[in-house]
Write a structure and sequence with these properties.
Layout lengths: L9 E9 L3 H13 L4 E4 L8 H4 L20 H6 L9 H14 L6 E2 L4 E7 L4 E6 L4 E9 L21 E4 L14 E5 L3 H13 L2 E6 L6 E2 L7 H9 L1 H10 L18 H14 L15 H18 L3 H7 L13 E2 L2 H4 L5 E5 L5 E4 L3 E4 L4 E3 L2 E4 L8 H4 L2 E3 L6 H4 L18 E3 L12 H21 L5 E3 L1 H16 L30 H13 L5 E3 L4 H7 L1
Bound molecules: NADP nicotinamide-adenine-dinucleotide phosphate.
The site of NADP nicotinamide-adenine-dinucleotide phosphate (NAP) has 27 residues, from helix 5.
Length: 552
């Protein structure tokens, strides 16, 4: 007997795009308006925005500077839009993405509240059959995932959560009407970029905030501020220059890594350089020297400087000691930037619990019990515990490729892609910012634009040449996976053994370094060369006979 989902008629389009964040919006625009394809975007939320739709936690703000956190494909869009602050806040980014959706009339091809449940490739018809959880069905030649790298919330499986009498929230699934902390005893678990942004804002209204820290973290002040009219005018007059810098840089930011070693300068000079970067604030701290991420001794200089700053800010020596007891080299985990994080621990209503000394035993009706027998009474628990990154959102959908092989099976030892763009055995499936691409190691809109444009050009090539399918050759995948590994091992990045880059934050997840650490500029060149060499490393399906005859 057919199940209920089989009842709804299947809608056929050229391409299904999953997700309506930066990636999905631009992919829709490219395929529909540049190639003239019929496109259906399926989006789980009830609005556009992706990451920024879900991450509405207090203090949510982008760590990339606003003049670089934008689409650069359209000069008129760049000229018409003005950011107000050095780093765009969540609400402003949402306004921007809604502006983009309206400006390019994108909404008419997006179905909201449509979470994809499964996608199955049918070889005979060369079609992807996609189902949403509400039973809608789509058939498409091309399936493009634009699901983000950090969209699958990781709520830790701590025993007793279901018995908690208070309320709990994950920062990545934040209620749209906010959370009222006033007078409440709040416990926040997690001190990554999210927790470090959220703590100062929660502390402003909470009766008491208890921060549960497992791994101490570096953080650099953001020094956020309203943008001056002078800066705004400069950014508008300099779009070509900014774009060129972002494309040429290792991380896709609008600044270059200084071409000097930390060993090239005296101790006093180095200290002055770090102090100036600390005062300036932001992610460019790590761009001071070219070897911070490749040479442990160079890294030690930055790590020591940053640890020392904690002691200068935090008044209680015991708290400062726990906050600066950092076990990994600087920037081997994504470095947070903050607005008053360490200062927050000088407030009377904030305390720190060191989970390394006493891990969480369980959640009780009243709060969190740690292994030293102390029960921390709480009304609200905030899990700032991160994401099942990169592979999580893809594996959450039931994706089946050629010969009934599922993506879960194909990736049981970790993600295997070619260029982070395609998976062997999954023809015409493209993964925007997929594992094996620079993605999370870069300023996201820059790598998204590059992927979307590459995919668009690729699909244009297929159609112009009546090529029905593209998928990577398995040996190209193997070579790329090895190269991704080598690129990571050429840096200090794998030294943070508990980072989400390695999948180490999710129990049972294979430990594989997922993003490509070879640098954005090099990666762009590689992708362009592959395309220029006739999609070297990819297997292109034989053109349909009829199509060939028609073109003769
Ligand atoms: P995260 O970096 O994975 O941090 C999660 C935190 O939760 C870590 O401190 C982790 O400790 C802790 N944790 C996880 N499970 C735990 C458990 N069972 N018990 C105790 N502690 C636990 O996640 P995130 O802070 O959400 O950031 C993820 C990424 O999102 C960032 O690295 C960044 O790329 C991006 N992000 C960007 C922005 C921005 O641009 N504004 C803001 C926020 C996030 P361990 O370290 O010990 O595992």
């Amino acid at each position: 007997m057919p199940d209920a989902m089989d009842q709804s008629p299947e809608v056929t389009v050229d391409a299904v795009v999953i997700g309506a964040g930066f990636a999905g919006l631009y992919q829709l625009l490219c395929l529909r308006d540049r190639l003239g394809l019929s496109v259906q975007v399926l989006e789980a939320g009830d609005g556009v925005g992706g990451t920024w739709y879900w991450n509405r936690y207090p203090g949510a703000r982008c760590d990339s500077e606003s003049h670089s956190y934008a689409f650069y494909f359209d000069e008129a869009l760049l000229q018409d839009w003005s950011w107000t602050e050095r780093y765009p806040g969540q609400a402003e980014i949402m306004r921007y993405l809604n502006h983009v959706a309206d400006r390019f009339d994108l909404r008419r091809d997006i179905r909201f509240n449509a979470r994809v449940a499964s996608a199955e490739y049918d070889e005979a018809s060369n079609r992807w059959h996609v189902r949403t959880e509400d039973g809608a069905r789509y058939a498409a030649t091309y399936l493009i995932t634009a699901v983000g790298c950090l969209s699958s919330a990781n709520v830790p499986d701590i025993p007793g959560r279901e018995n908690f009498d208070g309320r709990w929230f994950h920062t990545g699934q934040w209620p749209h009407d906010g959370v009222d902390f006033s007078g409440k005893r709040v416990g926040m678990v997690g001190t990554g970029s999210t927790g470090i942004q959220a703590a100062p804002v929660i502390a402003e209204t909470a009766g008491h905030l208890t921060v549960f820290q497992r791994t101490a973290n570096y953080s650099i002040p953001a020094r956020n501020a309203p943008l001056t009219e002078e800066f705004k005018a400069w950014a508008k007059a300099s779009t070509a220059e900014i774009r060129a810098t972002m494309h040429a840089s290792v991380n896709g930011h609008a600044f270059m890594i200084q071409n000097r070693s930390a060993h090239d300068v005296t101790d006093a000079e180095r200290e002055a350089i770090y102090q100036a970067a600390w005062d300036l604030g932001g992610l460019r701290f790590r761009a001071n020297f070219r070897d911070i991420l490749t040479d442990k001794a160079a890294n030690d200089t930055a790590s020591a400087f940053l640890k020392a700053q904690i002691g200068k800010v935090v008044k209680d020596p015991q708290t400062a000691a726990v906050l600066s007891n950092i076990d990994h080299p600087f920037a081997t985990k994504r470095p947070p930037i903050d607005s008053g994080y360490f200062e927050t621990f000088n407030r009377d209503n904030v305390s720190l619990v060191d989970l390394r000394a006493a891990p969480i035993e369980r959640i009780t009706e009243n709060g969190i019990l740690t292994k030293d027998g102390v029960e921390h009474p709480l009304d609200i628990i905030v899990f700032a515990t991160g994401f099942d990154a990169m592979t999580g959102p893809l594996l959450a959908m039931d994706i089946t490729g050629r010969d009934g092989v599922t993506l879960k099976d194909a990736w049981k030892e970790g993600p295997k892609t070619y260029l982070g763009l395609q998976v062997a055995g999954f023809p015409n499936l493209f993964t925007v910012t997929g594992p094996g691409s620079p993605s999370v190691l870069t300023n996201m809109p820059v790598c998204i634009e590059q992927h979307v444009e590459w995919i668009t050009d690729c699909i244009a090539h297929l159609r112009a040449n009546h090529i029905p399918t593209i998928e990577p050759a398995t040996d190209a995948v193997d070579r790329w996976v090895a190269h991704v590994n080598d690129a990571a091992n050429a840096t200090l990045l794998p030294q943070a053994g508990h980072s989400w880059y390695l999948g180490a934050n999710v129990p049972g997840k294979p430990r594989v370094f997922m993003p490509y650490a070879g640098g954005m500029a090099r990666y762009r060149r590689t992708c362009a060369d592959v395309a220029a060499r006739g999609y070297d490393g990819f297997v292109l399906g034989a053109p349909a006979r009829g199509a060939l005859e028609m073109t003769r």
